[in-house]
Write a structure and sequence with these properties.
Radius of gyration: 38 Å
Largest sheet: 4 strands, mixed
Distance between the termini: 28 Å
Order of helices and strands: HHHHHEEHEE
CATH class of the largest domain: Mainly Alpha
C-alpha cells in the first residue's frame, strides 16, 4: 500500500497536460506491443488449445485404462466364481451317491442345476467383459495415436512461437521499460480508465488524436470548441460517441519525452 501511494503521489506531481502526453505515449507504446503480438498471430491460442486437447486425451485414456482394470478385475472374480461353482457341483454330485430318498436327490439336482446356470452366466459376463476390454483398448490406441500427432504439432508451434519471442525479446524489453516510464507519469485512476477503455475497443486504441475535425477512433465529428479544449490540454476529454480519450494531433509533431 505504501508503494502504491508513493507512485500515485509521484504521478500527481505532473500536470494534466503532461499526463495527457504520457497517456498518448503509452498508447503508442502499447500499439507497438500489439503489432508484435500480431506477428505471433493465433500461435499462443493454438499452443494453448493443443495443450488442452492433449491433457483432455490423456485424462480420457487414464479413465478408460481404469475402466479396463475394473473389467479385468471383474473377469477374475467371475472366473473364481466359476471355480467355486464347479467345486460345489462336484460336492453335490458326490452327495447324490449317498442320498436316502428321492427328495434329497432332487434337492441336490436342483443345486447342481443352479450352479451350472451360475457358470453359464459367469461365462457370458466374461465374454462381455472381454468384448468391452477389446473396444476400450482400441479407444486407448486411437487416443494414443492422436496424442502423438498433437504432440508433434505442439512441438512445432512452440518452436515457432519461441523463435518469434527470441526475435522480439529486445524490442519487447525496451517497450516494457518505456511503458513503465510513461505509466509513472499517470495517476492510478486515469491509468485504470485507460486500460478499461483499451480492453473494450476492438483495435486497442484508447487514446486517439483528432484528425480532420473528427475522432481518430470512431470518426464522428468533434465540435470546434471541444477541439480547442483538447488542444489546450487542461483536462481529460473523451469522445461522447466511442468513449476514447481524445488528444491533439499536434502531439504527433512533438518529439517524445525522454
Amino acid at each position: 500500500m505504501a508503494t502504491s501511494s508513493r507512485k500515485s503521489g509521484e504521478a500527481n506531481d505532473f500536470s494534466t497536460e503532461e499526463k495527457i502526453v504520457a497517456l498518448y505515449e503509452l498508447q503508442k507504446i502499447d500499439s507497438k506491443i500489439d503489432e508484435i503480438d500480431k506477428i505471433k498471430g493465433e500461435l499462443p491460442l493454438e499452443v494453448q488449445d493443443l495443450e488442452d486437447e492433449i491433457a483432455g486425451l490423456e485424462t480420457r485414456m487414464a479413465n478408460i485404462s481404469a475402466e479396463v482394470d475394473g473389467l479385468m478385475a471383474s473377469t477374475k472374480q467371475r472366473k473364481e466364481e466359476i471355480e467355486q461353482a464347479k467345486a460345489l457341483i462336484a460336492k453335490y454330485e458326490q452327495q447324490q451317491d449317498n442320498v436316502r430318498n428321492n427328495r434329497e436327490y432332487d434337492s441336490l439336482s436342483k443345486e447342481i442345476e443352479y450352479q451350472k446356470l451360475e457358470i453359464e452366466l459367469c461365462e457370458k459376463r466374461i465374454k462381455e467383459y472381454g468384448a468391452d476390454v477389446k473396444v476400450k483398448k482400441k479407444m486407448i490406441e486411437d487416443a494414443q495415436s492422436i496424442v502423438a500427432d498433437r504432440k508433434i504439432d505442439l512441438a512445432a508451434k512452440r518452436q515457432e512461437l519461441e523463435g518469434i519471442d527470441q526475435e522480439t525479446a529486445g524490442a519487447m524489453e525496451a517497450l516494457t521499460a518505456q511503458s513503465k516510464a510513461a505509466e509513472a507519469r499517470i495517476d492510478a485512476r486515469l491509468l485504470a480508465a485507460y486500460k478499461r477503455i483499451r480492453a473494450n475497443v476492438r483495435n486497442g486504441l484508447a487514446v486517439v488524436t483528432v484528425k480532420r475535425d473528427a475522432c481518430g477512433g470512431c470518426y464522428n465529428r468533434i465540435p470546434p470548441q471541444r477541439q480547442l479544449d483538447i488542444r489546450m490540454g487542461k483536462k481529460i476529454i473523451v469522445c461522447e460517441y466511442c468513449g476514447r480519450i481524445l488528444v491533439s494531433n499536434l502531439l504527433d509533431e512533438e518529439p517524445a519525452a525522454e
